[in-house]
Write a structure and sequence with these properties.
It is a single chain. Helix content is 25%, strand content 25%. Strand 8 and strand 9 form a beta hairpin. A seven-stranded antiparallel beta sheet has the order 1-11-6-13-4-3-2. It has nine helices and 13 strands. With 280 residues, it is α+β, with helices and mostly antiparallel strands. The protein has one domain: q2cbj1_9rhob like domain (Jelly Rolls).
Length: 280
């Protein structure tokens, strides 16, 4: 039985994204949120990315999913089977990250495509997929994801540095805004959005009283393994798990937060390898 409906698969192809409402239960998300909030190692590993206005977004990233609750979310069949249906290939875990957009102080993300970053890592094709899982309710007020519906059909556009972030070429973004509908991806905790690596997306700063944390699991197709080494892994077999493993891992207090966080400040050169002006 296909993991996705025909409508979801069509939306991904035509719009560049689709929502999977209530993909995770309240109990599953509650365990994930509790684990992340109390995870001292995640807090210590968090890296800040200035948005060009003095505000910043914090994120923690890990390359290998592990056996704790973070890994069970990334490895569960309800996610990975759907991603493989979209990629028409075996998927492996490219990386996961927790976006820590805290109340009042969380900064914005500039308009960009994920492949605008990942192209720098030796990936020949945009055969990747990201799954953003709402850990907190995401609203316009607390800086939810924004996408330009259908903009993935533009292909990869040039990216330049904006603060400490890589942003898509502003001239092209402005024309894209006039061409494609802007969708505010408001989600309740437990909802997910699957999106294409060439989809233009951004998020505003969080000026609300509510945090907006999100887990993003990113996958690459096996046949799209990078031709050079980077801070993200080449093909590594992903061992899928049954969906009930989330709760089983989450209830193991000793192991549920176990994962090896990456040092983004020293390892991630995806943005800083970009020119400070458009190509051409």
């Amino acid at each position: 039985m296909p993991a996705l409906s025909e409508q979801q698969a069509h939306s991904y192809e035509h719009d560049g994204f689709f929502f999977a409402r209530n993909l995770f239960s309240a109990d599953e998300i509650s365990l994930l949120r509790e684990t992340a909030i109390n995870d001292h190692a995640m807090d210590q590993a968090a890296s800040s990315r200035d948005d060009g206005t003095g505000a910043s977004v914090r994120l923690s990233l890990w390359n290998h999913p592990g056996d704790g609750i973070y890994g069970m979310f990334a490895r569960c069949r309800r996610v990975v089977d759907a991603v493989e249906q979209l990629l028409h290939d075996e998927a492996y875990h490219y990386h996961s990250k927790m976006i820590l957009k805290d109340a009042k102080v969380g900064g914005a993300w500039a308009w960009h495509q994920d492949y605008g970053y990942w192209y720098q890592n030796g990936l020949l094709f945009p055969d990747l997929c990201s799954v953003m899982i709402a850990v907190d309710t995401a609203t316009v007020q607390n800086g939810c994801l924004q996408v330009l519906q259908g903009s993935h059909r533009m292909g990869r556009v040039n990216h330049v540095l904006s603060g400490e972030q890589a942003g898509a070429d502003l001239e092209r973004v402005e024309h894209a805004k006039q061409t494609f509908p802007l969708v505010q991806c408001e989600m309740t905790a437990g909802d997910a959005v699957f999106f294409h690596p060439n989809l233009l997306h951004a998020s505003a700063a969080n000026r609300s009283e509510d945090p907006r944390w999100a887990l993003i699991c990113c996958y690459n197709a096996r046949n799209n393994k990078p031709y050079k080494q980077s801070h993200h892994p080449s093909y590594t077999k992903l061992h899928k798990v049954d969906d009930d493993m989330i709760m089983r891992a989450g209830n193991n207090d000793a192991e549920r937060a176990r994962v090896e966080f990456a040092n983004l400040d020293s390892d991630d050169r995806s943005a800083t390898t970009l020119s400070d002006r458009p190509e051409g």
